[in-house]
Protein: DUF7224 domain-containing protein
Organism: Streptomyces halstedii
Amino acid sequence: MRTATLLRSGPAAWTALILIPVLVWFSAQNTESAIAYWPSISSQTTIVVGFISAACGAAAAWEAARIEQGGITALAPARGLLGVAVLHLGPVAVLGLIAMIAPFAVVTTSVASTSGSPTPAILAVSYSVILAHIALGWFIGTRMPKLLGAATMLIFGYLWGFWPAAIGALPWLRHLNGQGVSECCGLDQEPSVRSLMATVTFSLAIVTAVVLSSALHHRLWGPLLSLSAFTLATVVALVLAVPLEFQGTQARDTSLRTCTGHAPQVCLWPEQRTQEANISRWAKETTAHLAAVGVTPARQVEFGDPRPDRANVASNVATSPVPNDVPACALRQGATYPGDEAMIAIYAWLSLTGGVPKNDLARRWPPEAINLAERIQALPPRAQHAWYERNMRSVHDCAVLPDLAPASYTTKAGTP
């Protein structure tokens, strides 16, 4: 059959007229979480997989029902049911591929250019989900009327594409439907290979079962073989997915970083190396500001923004002495952690001291914390250091209450 005839008689063309513009519009509205890092850009495409798979599954079900109703397989027995399926579902598969590329192009053009290349594994895994829905649509469509089969796949595809990500009790389901890496990735992360493999394996389970069912539909043992293949592959997918729970990322290879300098040592990922001179200079300036009040930054610092500006570098270096996690005492059942109040004030003071502009800080911290930080900055350097040391004890020890009042540090030569 000619390609023009397939497109004219099948659902792929008119589905594309609706699906592609919607995907382009939706992707343009949801690019704020992507950063100039290819795994992050590539993972944004997984957000729309639910829409694409639902539409392609419905189109496949419609085409399958139309073929079944028209008795096409009986008119061409030499080709077989599987051969007819491949021919007629080809345009739907191409539609799925175009629907994947369109939002990816939108996200890519909306994010500043970056080094490297797209992450093909994420795109391939997402496409495997679409192919699985096309296969399932074929299976459903040959057993239901056109409208009912298409509606079933449309509803099922949408629910399966988005519902698992909202379930807190079964978080590993997102690794089966292709949403496992949708929140990937920071610069120090990469997509979880285990998550990607779980998605591919489950998609392969569906495709294999449908292929065997179509190829062996006249054999008595065909359903048993297809069910066995589906069960085996699904078990493998579950073994991969269940231990992951919510986690869809893994640590990036730290050997890719380049670390220079000392006190602090500045570590940059490949995407940041074009700014190495500026970042190192800004880090030294911030370190000098901290040294004036007796504060030493962490031994090693890195930055989450692919293109950090002066304020970002100053903030990271200045607040690096503050621990990222609360102490073990705060994790005990019923425990209180007075260090929270101290941590907010210390963050604001360190940021201002390190050179972060007040208007930039005001976007992230409450006004009262900034006002307190400015009052502490008005104290002599020794008094500021004493305030810092005293309240850092509250950050590390739940039994120590903070003493944030500037008046406590204006006596005895700036010591409390």
Summary: The first helix runs from residue 3 to 9. The first strand starts at residue 189 and ends at 191. The beta strands are 189-191, 249-251, 258-260, 265-268, 300-302.
